[in-house]
Amino acid sequence: MSVEFEVFEGFVHSRGVGVLTTSCLESHREALVAALGSQPEREILDLTGVEQVDLTGGAVRAEVSLDRAHLEVFEQLEDPRLAIVADREVLYGLARMYQILHEGSRLTIEIFRSSEEAVEWIGSEVAAQ
What we know:
The protein is an alpha/beta fold. The chain is built from 5 helices and 5 strands, in the order E-E-H-E-H-H-E-H-E-H. The longest helix has 15 residues, at about 20-35. The protein is globular and about 35 Å long. The two termini are about 25 Å apart.
């Protein structure tokens, strides 16, 4: 899978296409940090272009462990938010697992079935750019 992203003032809009894998998620995280110099405060991760999932629950737990190793990054952000758009059940389930494993952290994660809902939640004044 490739994850392409656009950086706007106040948020990042990422779109996944193809096969969802652990290495793709890691590459996306590294590319975001390289482009921005840090974790974005607000991101929409749109997975509606994902055609196949090659990711396990263990891989999701490993991703959360990486996130937790860098929690100080989220502590520096005013209102860190991640909106995940998942239109298929398997993607929704993995996103929900990621959300549950992040409970208690400063990062607020919500899962949506449509981009419109995600944009509204991220903040329409920010995402409308």
